[in-house]
Amino acid sequence: MKKKWVLATGNIGKVKEMSQLLNSFAIEILPQSHFNVSEVAETGTTFVENAIIKARHAAKVTGLPAIAEDSGLEVDFLSGQPGIYSSRFAGENASDQDNIDLLLNKLEGVGSEHRRARFQCVLVYMRHDLDPTPIICQGTWEGVISDRQQGANGFGYDPVFWVESDHCSSAQLSKQRKNELSHRGQALAQLVERLKEQLN
After folding, report:
1. Nearest residue to 179 via CA among 50, 14, 51
2. Is the pTM of this model over 0.85?
3. Domain covering 3-199, topology
4. Assuming Cys at both sites, which of 30, 36, 57, 134 could form a disulfide with 40, CB separation 3.0 to 4.6 Å?
């Protein structure tokens, strides 16, 4: 019988992705919305803190092992902004387009050599809400903020995140290629390796 784990997100795409990766462990990944877990305030000042807050909350409410992630974009010219505030850079209920517009506005007139940026993803796995040694995995994806949007795949800042190795924006990559390169793909691969050690 499959073990049940909760993923501290309501994003069905992320649940599917995680389920495929953990399929070989006989683990069923369920979104926290399946258990009516409420959103928890992300009061941390780092990606790690926020991921732990979300994982602990989901584990406490459901009584199940929990996985949570926190991710965002760091732009060198903006001293690491928007960082942990990436999804609400332009305000609490900002759309992806609002956030992109603000970012491009702040970088207007800035040369490409000063537009270096990276996506960060921190994944946390907790066996239970009091787990003193959660597994923490981190992935980093380096790039440059382009001065215009290109591509229709992906979400968030993908249309302005230029991937130098592939000479296109993140929003122009195939799903498979993005998973190979991305911060989230890297963190997930680490998590799978760490879980192999624990579960086998």
Report:
1. 14
2. yes
3. Maf protein (3.90.950)
4. 57
